[in-house]
Amino acid sequence: MAIRLRHREFLTSFFLCFLPVLVVYYPLLMLGIDGAKHGTVPPATVWAGNLLLIAWGAWLLRRVLRY
User: How far is CA 56 from CA 4, 19, 35, in A?
Assistant: First the structure.
C-alpha cells in the first residue's frame, strides 16, 4: 500500500492500511470466536479474517510487482 500511495500523506497511507484490519479482520475474528464457542460455526472460521487479508495482500503485491 505504501508503494502505491507514495505521493500521499503519511497518515493517509497509515489509515488506509489500518482500516481493513478494523473493518474486516476484527469483526470476522470476533464472529468466528463467538460462533466457535457456541458451536454454530466450525472452529476453522476463526481463520476467515486471516485468509481474507492474505488474499487481499497477495492481490496488492501482484499489482505492485506487475508495474
Answer: 14, 13, 24
Indicate the burial class of 18 (C-beta count within 10 angstroms; 0-12, 13-18, 19 or more): exposed
Residue 30 to residues 8, 22, 37, 55, Cα–Cα distance (Å): 32, 11, 11, 19
Domain boundaries, the chain: 10-66
List helix spans (H) across the chain: 10-20, 26-38, 48-66
Retrieve residue 26's grid coordinates: 476484527
Taking only the tens place, the pLDDT of each residue in 31-66 is 999 999 999 999 999 999 999 999 998 998 898 888
